[in-house]
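hey all, quick one before standup. I had two proteins in the batch that finished overnight and I want to keep them in one place so we stop losing track of which output belongs to which input. First protein below, input sequence then structure tokens straight from the run.
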Amino acid sequence: MAKKAVKEKVVTIPALNLECAEFEIEGDTIMVQEKFSEKAKRLIIKIQEKGPQSKKGIKKEPKDFQLMFEQSQHVSKDGWPGIPAAAFRSGVISACRLVGFKMTLAKLSLFVVADGYDKTDETPLCRITKGKAKYRDDAVRIQNTCDVHARAMFEPGWRAKVRLEWDADQFSLADVSNLMSRMGKQVGIGAGRPDSRSSAGMGWGTFKVLNKVNQFIK
């Protein structure tokens, strides 16, 4: 019997089409940072190295609120203050829910270009161009426990520049601009933001997009 001819399938995959723009943003509410401190990290490592009975033998040290404030900040290797690039990436992806765009596709299509890296943990950062960290302490509730945390706060008017890169086959420049605007009002950045995982937020961390600088950076 004669063999049936096998039909060849031609698959055409378009080349990656990336575009990039830089957005200048300005905070219209306070922004509060709460980086996981190096001291807390070392304590957890110490406890876990000793095993399940370790807590019984560990003496609680007095709280150093000034150190908590300093370690809550994201500071680059060059000494400038920053915001984790991942926070903006998560924010614009979260904003996709508001317009019915699949977040699974947005994760593959939206990226943030970092300006530098955190001096303690290599976290990619976007640079804060205006504003200075100020000491702030707040009563917080973690499950059923009350505590006081000292954190860094930037007053309204703080500014940053965020470079977004995107798949131009999924989004246009107008789309990305609108996502940034929605993120600024409806998602926010830092502690107490509207899109907080553990609460409805405190109305902190909201911002507006001032303009687009260098709309296409190759």
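OK second protein, same deal, sequence then tokens:
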Amino acid sequence: MDEKMITCPRCQAVNNAGSFFCYSCGKYFVEIEEGKAGEVPNKQEPGKRLPPAPKAQVIMPGGKEIMLNGAPAFIERSDFDSTLPHDILMSISRQHLLITCENGTYYLQDYGKDGKGSTNHTKLNNTDIFNKGRQPLKGGDIIELASQAELTLTFKLL
């Protein structure tokens, strides 16, 4: 019996779809309401096929890339280079951002603990999105974590 697999967006390791974190690098996978961790919710009508999610990436400070394939993904403290100063690194929540994709559109949410928002907030194109729910993303959007210029990310559609 073939078990479904999920590819870690951080290190590209293959894990069981029901995993809550990557066994290779420790990245948390998203727990979604309508399924297990690592699964993409299926909200389509029977017999109606949705187009595949567009490929996208988040470009991190220093040029590191996190690939997105439509599956929900966290951007979290552990995604950042540990060479950042400790006070800046600690301003990032463990699960700071959540990126999801629905009907071909990517969305950004300031996530934090239990989805209630990060401690130090997130800006999308210089607008604070704390407590504003999901915000649609478009290519070239600038995401700033914790009001720190060193924590500026770029969303890019491929």
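Flagging for whoever picks this up: The longest strand covers residues 97-102. DSSP finds one helix and twelve strands in the chain.
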